[in-house]
């Protein structure tokens, strides 16, 4: 459920008309709903409450905006980060260091030190090599890094191949059949405090069965590690729960997800950790855009050219993803159009042969479900700059990220004098 709805024939975000935001901030612009973020954060938390000890870490990569992180913080969430930059953001948003989990296959020495110096809660190790390096750095600083070992369960999550992370040939985690041996070697290193296991098998998951299979394997591993005399106090079950992108699609609910875990993990006796991203932020944001032109070619589907492009919202170009597209003031007439941006690539196509509200030049429209993996994936391709981000809260709104102009980006570029 979200708070982007038609009122008297016009789309609102909570109690603010999107037309007003377009007027004051310009387009394209991302618009987030605080109430929607909070609602999703609470529904997810409540679904997991029966598990007992639970640590929730919002996946910063899904939406790293500082105001969004602040909302998550207020809801009691920590952060799952995958780079030093995300760690810095999480800290800047006010998240306590101990609530930060650091995932990612390529943590470098500088980022490891950054995490140790800040005192983050947990490093999720993705390889033995990484553990050895972190152990050396921590020991040299007289510290012990709290760690979980990320295990790759070799399970097909049944999602888009580019966001599948739990198959043996994906780069993430250690192979499940080597996990016990690697855990033992890492636990023997003085710079590490091995305290558990982690898994994250993919994103936009539409089926709980692969998760259940993965978690069942994690349960077996926990038992095996304990039988070998190891301490296991934490189990990080990752993120990945999918959300509907098309009106009418049905996904497993957080409640069903929680009930499945309660069944599979009832005897684990651990602190459960979660790293949700999309399920919290996805439907809490839209990308508001204006139609530049409607280009009609005889006997062909017209092109609805909007001012947003693949650099602002990359998912359709990257993964062929669907985003519902709706007029802000629908006229009650429908049309079929190809929804495209202005970028000089055929890939800059949001939708092909889409049945949509009839649109004319100057009309406003939204791409829905753009709150996760939207603004954060933006680039400045075609020298388009970065779009502004707005957060709505009831009947007020604030710009939570300024529009960054092309001039500001090329101000960082230099022409060496030997080119004169
Ligand atoms: C991307 C990612 C997440 C979040 O995934 P969602 O599908 O957005 O919930 C969680 N954990 C890790 C390690 C990730 O890489």
TrEMBL record:
Domain of life: Bacteria
Record keyword Lyase present: yes
EC number: 4.1.1.20
Biological process, per Gene Ontology: lysine biosynthetic process via diaminopimelate
Keywords attached to this entry: Amino-acid biosynthesis, Decarboxylase, Lyase, Lysine biosynthesis, Pyridoxal phosphate
Enzyme class: lyase
Cofactor: pyridoxal 5'-phosphate
Keyword tRNA processing (UniProt): no
Residues in Orn/DAP/Arg decarboxylase 2 C-terminal domain copies: 30-371
Modified-residue entries (N6-(pyridoxal phosphate)lysine), positions: 61
PROSITE patterns: ODR_DC_2_1
UniProt protein name: Diaminopimelate decarboxylase
Upper classification of the organism: Bacteria, Pseudomonadati, Pseudomonadota, Alphaproteobacteria, Sphingomonadales
């Amino acid at each position: 459920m979200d708070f982007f709805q038609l009122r008297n024939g016009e789309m609102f975000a909570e109690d603010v008309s999107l037309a007003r935001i377009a007027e004051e901030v310009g387009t394209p612009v991302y618009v987030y709903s605080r109430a929607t973020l909070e609602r999703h954060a609470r529904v997810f938390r409540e679904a997991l409450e029966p598990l007992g000890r639970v640590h929730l870490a919002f996946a910063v990569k899904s939406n790293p905006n500082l105001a969004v992180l602040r909302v998550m913080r207020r809801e009691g969430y920590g952060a799952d980060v995958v780079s030093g930059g995300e760690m810095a953001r999480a800290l800047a948003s006010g998240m306590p260091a101990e609530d930060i989990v650091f995932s990612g296959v390529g943590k470098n020495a500088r980022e490891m030190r950054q995490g140790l110096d800040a005192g983050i809660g947990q490093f999720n190790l993705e390889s033995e090599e990484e553990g050895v390096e972190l152990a050396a750095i921590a020991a040299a600083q007289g510290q012990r890094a709290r760690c979980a070992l990320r295990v790759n369960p070799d399970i097909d999550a049944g999602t888009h191949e580019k966001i599948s992370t739990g198959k043996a040939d994906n780069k993430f985690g250690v192979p499940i059949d080597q996990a016990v041996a690697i855990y033992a070697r890492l636990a023997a290193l003085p710079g590490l405090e091995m305290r558990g296991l982690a898994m994250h098998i993919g994103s936009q998951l539409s089926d709980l069965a692969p998760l259940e299979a993965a978690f069942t394997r994690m349960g077996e591993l926990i038992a095996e590690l304990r039988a070998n005399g190891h301490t296991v106090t934490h189990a990080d079950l990752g993120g990945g729960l999918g959300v509907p992108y098309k009106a009418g699609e049905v996904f497993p609910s957080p409640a069903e997800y929680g009930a499945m875990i309660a069944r599979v993990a009832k005897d684990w006796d651990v602190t459960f950790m979660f790293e949700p991203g999309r399920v919290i932020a996805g439907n809490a944001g839209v990308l508001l855009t204006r139609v530049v032109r409607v280009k009609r070619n005889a006997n062909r589907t017209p092109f609805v050219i909007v001012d947003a492009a693949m650099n602002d919202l990359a998912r359709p170009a990257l993964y062929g993803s669907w985003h519902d597209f709706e007029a802000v003031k629908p006229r009650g007439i429908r049309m079929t159009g190809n929804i495209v941006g202005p970028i000089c690539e055929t890939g800059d196509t949001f939708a092909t042969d889409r049945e949509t509200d009839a649109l004319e030049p100057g009309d406003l429209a939204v791409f829905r479900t753009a709150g996760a993996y939207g603004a954060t994936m933006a680039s400045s391709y075609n020298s388009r700059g970065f779009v502004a981000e707005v957060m709505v809260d009831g009947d007020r709104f604030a710009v939570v990220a300024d529009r960054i102009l092309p001039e500001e980006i090329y101000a960082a570029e230099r022409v060496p004098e030997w080119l004169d």
